[in-house]
Amino acid sequence: MATPGARCRTPASCTRLWRDTLSWECEVITDHLSLWAQPFGPHEDLPTRLKNILKEYSASAPDLVKEVLQNADDAGAGLLHFVWDRRQHPVKATFSEEWKILQGPALCIYNDRPFQQRDIEGIQHLGVGSKQGRQDVTGKYGLGFNTVYHFTDCPAFLTGDSTLCVSDPHLYYVPTATTEKPGSMFTVNTDFKKNFPDIYDTFLPSFFDLKQGVLFRLPLRTAAEAAKSRVSDMVVRDQDLKNMEETLAKEGEDLVLFLRHVHTIIFSEIPPDGKELVEKLRVTTELTEEDAKLRQDFQARLSQATDGNSPTPLSYTMKVKNSRAKTTSLWRVISQIGVQDGAEESPELKWLPYGAVAARMEPLKRVMGRAFCTLPLPLVTGLPLHINANFSVDAARCRLHWDKGGTGATWNGFLLRRLVVPLYCYFLTGKPWSQKSSSISPWNSARSTWTPTSSTFPHLQQICEEFIEAQVNTVVLGPDSLQRFLKALALPVPCKLAETPLRNPESCSYLLRYLTGRNRHSQGTHKDGDKAILEGLPLLATEDGLLNAFSSQHPVFKNSFAK
User: Which of the residues 46, 111, 200, 486 could staple to 77 if both were Cys, CB 3.0 to 4.6 A apart?
Assistant: First the structure.
C-alpha cells in the first residue's frame, strides 16, 4: 500500500495513490468507530418473547400432553412415556449453585426416536421450527414445544445418550449461557458422566435405553421460582400432574386414533422415596401384520407425495387398549391422500389434502363425533364417527380458520367437500364415491315421490320412542324441523335463485311438496293449514329468477312457471 506523502510520477499512479490513501484513512476511522458507536437495532428479550408465546397456548395439562404427543409422532417415535419423578436428587456434582433447585421433582418424557440434527437446530428457532415444507407432520419443534415453559423455566433434553441441550432464557442456571445463545449444548461422554453424575442420573439412565431415544426433563416450577420468573408465574402442583394422567385415561382412545407412528403411551411415577418406576396407565394400538404394512406404505407415500391429483386410499381396523379402563375397542379407519375430484378448487395447489374417518365397531356404543387435526380439536360434529384432516387451524391448534374470504377457511371448506364427505360415503357404501356413482346401471325413466318414513320403516317411531324413554339424546328430522330450519336461516331475500344452494325452481317445488305432505302427482289444492307452513319460508321462486319468502302481506300469482 502507498503511504501518505509519496510522490506520484504519472497521472495513473497519482490516481492509484489517491485511492489507496483514502482507503487507508477510512480503515483508520473505522477502527476507532467504537469511540462514537454503540450497539443498536431491533431486539426482543427472550423471556418476554416466551411469555407472549405462552399467551397463545393453554397452560392446562391436557394441552401439554397433546403438544408433546404431536411432536413425538411427527418425529416418528413409536413409544411415548411420561414419568412423574417426585424425587429430590443429589446436588453435589452439578453445573452451579443455582442449578441445585432443578434437581427436585420433574416431569420426564421419553420417546424412542433420537433427535436428528435438524430437530436440534429447529428447536432453537422460535416461531420457525424444524418441519417446514414436510407434508407428513403436523407440529413444529420450536412452536407448540414452547408450551413446556408453562411448567418449567429450564427445559433440557438428552438425545442418543450423547448430547445434552439445556435452555436457560433467564441466563441463571447455566454458567455458559449468553444473551446470543441462552443455553448450552454439552457432549455427554464418559468424562461428562464422571464429573456430573448427579445431573446425568436425573435423565433416568437406569430406566431407559437413552441411546435409542430422547428424554426431556422439565424441572417443575416451584413457588420460589415462580415469584422471580419472567416467563411464567404458574406454580406447578401435584394436581397438574394428576390431571395429565387423567387426560390420558379419559382421552387416550381419541388421542391415538389418527397418530401415524406412536402406538404406545405410558404414564408412570417414581415416588419421593422410591427407586422403582411404577406404571399407572398404558394406552396401546394394535394392527394386524398386513394392516401395519399397508399403513407403513401409506405413510411413506404421504411423506413423498407432491400433489393431490392421484388419490391414495387406505382402509384398516385397529384395536385400542386402555389399561386404566380395562377396555379394548375396535375401530375402522379409512384414510386418503389427495381427492377424487375437484382438486382445482383448492385455494393452494401446493397444499396436499389428506384425511380420514374413524368409526368404532366394537363395542357398539354411541360415539360423540369430533373433528381432528391428527389430534382432537374442541369441536363436536354430531356425526356418529370422527373426522380427521389437515385443516387450517390457529397456532395452538385449537380453532379452525373460518374467516370469510380467508385462504384457511376456503381450504377447510374444500377438505370437507372433496375429502371428508367422500370418505364418509366410502365408509357407508364400502366403495369410493366416484366408483359408486359410475357403477350405477343405465335407466330409462324414474319417478320421485315423497314417501312417508312411517310407511317405509313401520317400526321407526317405536324405536324412536324407546330411545327417548331410555334417555338417549334423539334427534327427529321431518317436515317440522325442516320448516323451522328454513325460517331460521334468515336468507337475504329477495336474492338470485341461481346463486343459492337451491339453484332452480324444481328444488323449491320438491321442498314445498315435502313440507305440505303432497307428492308430485297429487291434485289437491292448498289447505288452510298450509298457509301457516308457507308463511316466511324462503322457497318462493318467481319468473324474474329471484328467490323470495312467502308472505300473506305480499301475495303472488301462480302460473305455469310455479307448477
Answer: 111
